[in-house]
Design brief:
- The protein is α/β, with parallel strands linked by helices.
- The protein has 19 helices and 17 strands.
- Strands 1, 2, 3, 4, 8, 13 and 14 form a 7-stranded parallel β-sheet that branches. A 4-stranded antiparallel β-sheet has the order 6-5-7-9. A 3-stranded antiparallel β-sheet has the order 10-12-11.
- Strand 11 and strand 12 form a beta hairpin.
- Helix 12 crosses helix 13 and helix 14 runs antiparallel to helix 15.
- The protein is elongated, with a radius of gyration of 26 Å.
Length: 511
C-alpha cells in the first residue's frame, strides 16, 4: 500500500555483543522510518536477533549454559543497546519464538510439497564463523573464510537441498526489469555478475548428529533448518503474512495483501548481499510469495585498511562513544560520515569533527537565536516577516526529498546542515546586535528574529530522524508542543510564542 512502509534490518547473530556495524544499520533504518512517519505514512520497522545455528550451540557449550539462556541474555543486550541509541522499532523478533518456528516449518514444508526440496549429499569447505560454505577459490591456499579470516573445515554429510538453480533465469529477469531493486548500482552489478555462472542448489538443512540447535524440518525430523534459511524467513513472520498454524496449502499463501509483506526495503551490510539478493528471493519464488520491493546494501566500517569485525577484535563500541558524546552525536556521526552504500573509515578525529559540526553550526545557531529573542524581546517571538529565508528552506526541503528518494541519507543530512549554515550567515549579514541598538531598526530586528526562529522550527523537523533527543529538546525551547512534521514546520508562523534559551545543545567536549 502506498501509505505504508515495511523496513527491516538484518537480525543480528546472538553470539556476540552489539558493535558499531550493528548500530549503523539499525540507526540508518530508524532514521528512514522516522522520515517516513514524518510524511504521514504508517511504518513497520523490524529488527531482532538470529538465535539458532552452530555458533550459538558452541558458544553456549563454552559458557556452560543452555543455548536459550545465551540467546535470552544476548537479545536483552541488543534491546538495551537500541533503547540507549534511541531506536524506535515496531517489532523485535527472535528466531526462537514459537510463532517464527511455526512459520519456518510451514514455509519449508510448502517448498517440499511443491517439489522444490530433495535429499542429497554435500561436501565442501564450511566456516563455523560465517555459518556457510565457501568455494576453493574463495578460501584460497590458506584455507580461511574470506570474510572473517578464520579457518574452514571440510564437511561431508547428507542434507536436504532447495532447487535454487530452477529460479536463476527468473531472478535475473527480475533484477534486469527493476534497476533500483538492489542499491547501490555496484551491488546490483555484483549480483548480476555472480548470476552469470550456473547457480547451484542450496543446502537447507544440517543433520542433528552435528547440530541440534535449530528448527526441526517437518518432513525430516533428523535434520534442522540451515540457520540462514531460518533467519531469512523472519521477515515474513514479522509481516503477519503467514500466521502461526497456517498450513502449507492454505489459501493465505496466495494473498498477503492484508499483511505488511512484501517488505519495502531490506537494509543489510554488503557482506550478506548474496543471501538476501539470491537465496532469499529464490526461496520466496519457490514458496509463491512476492519479492521484497528493494534491497539497500551498505558498506563496511574500516579501521585503517581493515574491515571492522568482532572476529578481528577491532570493533568500536557505540555505547562507549555515547557515554562521552551523547546518543544523538553517535547517530549523527554514523549517518553523516558514511556515504550510503559505500565504505567509511572510523577515526576518533573524524568523530570529533562531526561532533563539532553539530555544536558549531546547528547548536550555535540555536544558542545565538534563542539568546537574542530572550535578550531583545523578553523571550517572545516578535510579529516580524519570518519568511526571509523561505527560498533557502524550500530549496533544502527539495534537496532532502530528492536525496531520500535515492536513499542517500548522508546527502539529506548535509542539506539540512547547510540550511543551518545559511541561517548563521544570515545572522552575520543582518547583525541583529546592531539592529537592537537603533530604535529606528526595531522592525528589521523583528524580521531577523522571527526568521531565525522559523528556520530553527524547520531544522527540528529535519534533524529529528537522526537526532531525535536534541530535536525534541529544541522543539520544547521553541515553544512547540512536539517536533512538527516537515509540512507543519514549513507552514509554521512563530509570532507570539515564548521561547527559552537553555544550555547549549551540544556542549564543548574536552579532547
Amino acid at each position: 500500500m502506498a501509505d505504508r512502509r515495511y523496513l527491516t534490518t538484518p537480525i543480528y547473530y546472538a553470539s556476540g555483543a552489539p558493535h558499531i556495524g550493528h548500530a549503523y544499520t539499525t540507526i540508518l533504518a530508524d532514521a528512514l522510518a522516522r522520515f517516513e512517519r514524518q510524511s504521514g505514512r504508517e511504518v513497520r520497522f523490524l529488527t531482532g536477533t538470529d538465535e539458532h545455528g552452530q555458533k550459538i550451540q558452541e558458544e553456549a557449550n563454552r559458557q556452560g549454559v543452555q543455548p536459550i539462556e545465551l540467546c535470552d541474555e544476548m537479545a536483552e543486550r541488543f534491546r538495551d543497546a537500541w533503547d540507549l541509541l534511541d531506536i524506535d522499532y515496531d517489532r523485535f523478533i527472535r528466531t526462537t519464538e514459537a510463532e517464527h518456528i511455526a512459520v519456518v516449518r510451514s514455509f519449508v514444508q510448502r517448498l517440499y510439497d511443491r517439489g522444490h526440496i530433495y535429499a542429497g549429499e554435500y561436501s565442501g569447505w564450511y566456516s563455523v564463523s560465517q555459518e556457510r560454505y565457501f568455494t576453493e577459490k574463495e578460501i584460497g591456499p590458506d584455507r580461511v573464510d574470506p570474510i572473517a579470516g578464520k579457518p574452514v573445515e571440510w564437511v561431508e554429510e547428507e542434507n536436504w537441498f532447495f532447487r535454487m538453480s530452477a529460479f536463476q533465469d527468473d531472478l535475473i529477469a527480475h533484477i534486469e526489469a527493476n534497476p533500483d531493486w538492489i542499491r547501490p548500482e555496484v551491488r546490483r552489478n555484483e549480483i548480476l555478475g555472480f548470476l552469470q555462472q550456473p547457480l547451484g542448489d542450496l543446502s537447507i538443512s544440517r543433520p542433528k548428529r552435528r547440530l541440534r540447535w535449530g528448527v526441526e524440518l517437518p518432513f525430516a525430523t533428523e535434520h534442522v533448518a540451515y540457520v540462514w534459511v531460518d533467519a531469512l524467513i523472519n521477515y515474513v513472520t514479522a509481516s503477519g503474512a503467514i500466521p502461526a498454524g497456517t498450513a502449507p496449502d492454505d489459501p493465505a499463501w496466495d494473498d498477503v495483501s492484508d499483511s505488511w509483506w512484501p517488505a519495502d526495503l531490506h537494509l543489510i551490510g554488503k557482506d550478506i548481499l548474496t543471501t538476501h539478493a539470491v537465496y532469499w528471493p529464490t526461496l520466496l519464488m519457490g514458496a509463491g510469495l512476492p519479492l521484497p520491493r528493494g534491497i539497500l546494501a551498505h558498506g563496511w566500517w574500516v579501521v585503517g585498511e581493515t574491515k571492522m569485525s568482532k572476529s578481528l577484535g577491532n570493533v568500536i563500541d557505540p555505547l562507549q562513544l555515547r557515554d562521552t558524546y551523547g546518543t544523538d552525536a553517535v547517530r549523527w556521526y554514523l549517518l553523516r560520515e558514511m556515504p550510503t552504500g559505500s565504505d567509511a573509515s572510523y577515526t576518533p578525529e573524524r568523530f570529533l569533527t562531526r561532533y563539532e559540526e553539530l555544536a558549531n553550526v546547528w547548536g550555535n545557531l540555536a544558542q545565538r537565536a534563542l539568546s537574542m529573542v530572550a535578550r531583545y524581546r523578553d523571550g517572545v517571538v516578535p510579529d516580524g516577516d519570518a519568511a526571509q529565508l523561505d527560498a533557502a528552506i524550500d530549496d533544502t526541503l527539495a534537496q532532502v526529498g530528492s536525496s531520500l528518494e535515492s536513499l542517500r541519507l548522508h546527502e539529506a543530512l548535509g542539506a539540512a546542515m547547510d540550511l543551518a549554515r545559511t541561517a548563521n550567515g544570515y545572522v552575520e549579514e543582518r547583525e541583529p546586535w546592531a539592529q537592537a541598538k537603533d530604535p529606528a531598526r526595531a522592525g528589521n530586528l523583528d524580521d531577523t528574529l522571527a526568521t531565525l526562529v522559523r528556520v530553527l522550527t524547520v531544522l527540528t523537523a529535519l534533524f529529528h530522524p537522526v537526532c531525535p533527543g536534541k530535536a525534541a529538546e529544541l522543539a520544547g525551547r521553541l515553544g512547540l508542543s512536539g517536533v512538527p512534521t516537515l509540512d507543519a514546520a514549513k507552514a509554521d508562523r512563530p509570532a507570539g510564542r515564548s521561547v527559552e534559551k537553555g544550555d547549549p545543545l551540544f556542549p564543548r567536549i574536552e579532547n
